[in-house]
Structures
1.
Amino acid sequence: MAEITATQVKELRDRTGAGMMDCRKALIEKNGNIDEAIKYLREKGISKAEGKANRATKEGIIHSYIHFNNRIGVLLELNCESDFVARTDEFKALADEIAMQIAATNPLAISPEQIDPAILEREKEIAYNKAVNEGKKPEIIEKIVEGNLKKFCNEHSLLGQELISDSTKTVKDLLTNAIATTGENIQIARFVRYQLGGE
């Protein structure tokens, strides 16, 4: 049986909002596999963050961030369920971290599903032609294209991106952790990124 570390327990707790003992038990049950442990907690009804994803988010803030060189700016709408949470310093700090992420990475959309299909089609074609030109076998080309597309979607959608402040976590993990901490559903509604001289 795999040894369960404190780091694994913390990661599972961050991602689900479940208690430490429940997280430890789930990891032991699933031999240290985080994704399986998340599934286990959800099936047992213990994972809190996942269950809040469908609740209405009618409160929140419009947050502005101007990069230190005054050449990049971001306007972000971050929603939550109550005005009480929206006014907290933690919620404002979360908005600031997400806005800085947008300033640094210039994502195409919030989620992979929102990326323009024409862009995805172009990326598919590029990946396919590259694989053919490299002489890859036809039977593995489809998997290569699929892998490249998934990587592209993660790198260019905000939720799929690794955090600039911590590459072991994604923006989605950051939101999940905030949902678990506040006890409310939190959603990125929309954003605009401005760059001096940009389109």
Note: Strands lie at 59-66, 72-80, 187-195.
2.
Amino acid sequence: MSKQIKTSKFKDNLKARSEEAKTVRKIVTIIIMTLLIILVIGGASGYLYVKSALEPVHPDSKEEIKVTIPIGSSSSNIANILEDNGVIKNALIFRFYLKFNNESSFQAGDYVFTPDMELSEIVDSLKSGKLLAEPVYTVTIPEGKTIEELAEIYAEQLPFSKKEFLEKVNDPDYIQTLMERYPSVLLEDILNPEIRSPLEGYLFAATYEFFEEEPSVEAVVDEMLKKTESVLSDYLDVINEQNYTVHEAITFASVIEKETGAKDQRKKIAGVFANRLEKGMKLQTDPTVLYAQGEHKDRVLYEDLEIESPYNTYYIEGLPVGPIGNFSETALEAALHPEESKNLYFLHDKDGNIYYAETLEQHNKNKQKHIN
């Protein structure tokens, strides 16, 4: 074999090995990248899985679930019983939760749980032997109530006074602790010194059950803020998309809530307000005047419209400085999804009918026809 042929063969072999090495490197790179992707996805999935398992089964459900914990049950037995009955999402995660928090000494008995209970509440019940068969108090908070009205409702049914409730919800130190506990709901906006009460509008209208003989104001407020947080969590992305802050969205919803009890009209009314805001017109809505005055009146007079208050939308431009009462989910929906129209005015007649107008001229005609 000639030297030239040997050289050529050597080069061919070298080239082949070089190509083979490149192929091996590519395969190794692909394998490593694939493994990294699997690890990242697996880690994220694992985090979300555990996070979900630590949350209530159904945050809005008050369905009673009767559970019997036999004498001598281990933590594993209890976890399996709770999972089988739909009280918790995952028995294994629940057992890790117990170990991590060093929880034990559970009591046997017949319990009644609800799917909206936090793991901490379930554990407390099992440790104390508190059988949640029936709530001691059931309190319904209607929509559109101010924090003063809300305090009156609780004072009539629970063992604390209106004064005690209002002092607690207006205590700056307490508000700070709540802001730390509910950072997605309670933001710096509520600390505006012009706001009458920092939690005004943030305590959601719903029916609440309390299982203690003497629930504290803190326990009541905590239940209400949990509900507010639960409702708002589904709307945070939309609120951001609409360029509102949470405070502005709640304020807008509270105005719509107070303006009409007709749920089918709320999006249309929200559309009028949105049009006025866009054009730089004052909202000029009577419920804000009444809130600014701090008293209930059957009819707003012209002299009332002149009150100089950051809540009075005849006096200020834009939304009030804060909510004027609590809101319902339909009012929040309307605030975030107003009906499109060219209407800039509306009015109610004595029977509750609502008449809309695109121009002031048409609005005045509606006044003459339906009001005067």
Note: The longest strand covers residues 65-69.
3.
Amino acid sequence: MVTSDQRRRQLAREKYQRQQQRREENRRKAKRRNTVVAAALAVVLAAGGAVYASVALTDDGSPKGTDNAAGDTPTSSAPTPSASESASPEPKLSVDTKATYTMALKTNEGDITLTMDAAKTPRTVNSFKHLADKKYFDGTKCHRLTTQGIFVLQCGDPKGDGTGGPGYTIPDENLDALGKAGADGTVTFPAGTVAMANTSQPNTGGSQYFLVYKDTKLPPSYTPFGKIDAAGLKVVQDVAKAGVEGGATDGAPKTAVTIEKATVTKK
């Protein structure tokens, strides 16, 4: 026969066991949350990318105007050209590899001028000259703004959703320009830097690039190919101050930025 004292002890043990189970479940939930956060951070550090779970600074390199289904962010898997569209070859190198070039972006929010050194990034500058001469960037939108973790405005996509590209890729260049990576695997991209987006893989630059409006730590896997002039940097910073649509920290800028005309000239 169970005494009242024994029954109380049994109930106490059962209560303790339930508490322990709840604590263990809470620990498991916390671990899962931390794993998700760590994975999100890993995405940023590994890919960029832009973008922190979806801030990867990527450019899928699809041909301009393809009808491939697009993911909702540039971190989506890169679509491939349809059977009716063949990839274009990288344009033949025609720039003066000892010269400095400027890319003038006339936007609805103000002019942004970029200085590009062809001696350090000849194939990147050559590609931008080739595309600008073809009016490839005219009428395109800067489709992505990030305001947390990394601080960039991403442009250069003819489709305006992060999935467009010129149909060819260009190699990485000048990756050691910002110094050696620290213990966290990153270097600082100073405010005013212009760098290439990519597909998270080496040598996959296309037409998308990002304008750094505040010092940003990223892996040294994005070609830094230019500098923004003071007036242009203020334009980008003003856009950043207005924030992202819907109050998010990553997405289309609330202040829409359209590149009305882009021209590349030798200084």
Note: The longest helix spans residues 4-47.
4.
Amino acid sequence: MALQPFRLLRPTSLAEAKELRAANGEASFLSGGHTLLPTMKQGLARPPVVIDLTRIDSLRGIDASANAITIGATTLHADVAASQVVRTKIPVLAGLAGSIGDRHVRNRGTIGGSLANNDPAADYPAAALGLGATIVTDRRELVADDYFVNLFETALAPDEMITRIVFPTPDIAGYAKFRHPASRYSIAGVFVSRKGADVRVAVTGAGERGVFRVTAFEQALAKDFRAEALEGLAVDPSGLLEDLIATKEYRAHLIHVMARRALGNLGTTQSYK
């Protein structure tokens, strides 16, 4: 199916982007374009106006403070993966970014685009929820626990833009995913982190409502932060996805396996094995 005609606008400042969106009520924002453009080609989305955010310098870049890393919304996956700041402060976040899609996807896709789309099998939602990140928009701050709502649904208003994401620096963190061999999307991926007494375990690729936390795993790891602490624990399969790739029960099994592997990847840039 051919793309329907649309106007492409390319603002160079956040203020200009907001003005253009206000003047074009049915416009869609474009960041990496790996979701919007395919859906437009399929006729599933037909915005008359597309506002490209990638020329706004203030939305791109990586900064570090004593206790966090801040990543601009239009920062490429490849730049997150290669960043020495990220590799030093949160190594697993660099590894996660380097495991997304293929080289083409990593050199075009953006972290803000991924989080705004909230694909149920995407990697960044697990990192955001697993680290307790804050998603900063052009009008407010949203903690990750309140940001993710459902499949492809977030707390963002239709005209709201992500400007940056703030990731608290954990004491230690790890990620592991069982990926689809073609798309590299997660069939089940688990992000584990510890900061002081706070332990977070976030799962992507498996939930009926998208990314979610596993309280039972968190409570066990808060007492003993080792893979052995998960022995005998299981995820209820009733709330998991089932499709041609995997049953609910298989995904439940994978979550347990990936959680143990994530604990084996602590402090490294390894994101799957």
Note: The radius of gyration is 18 Å.
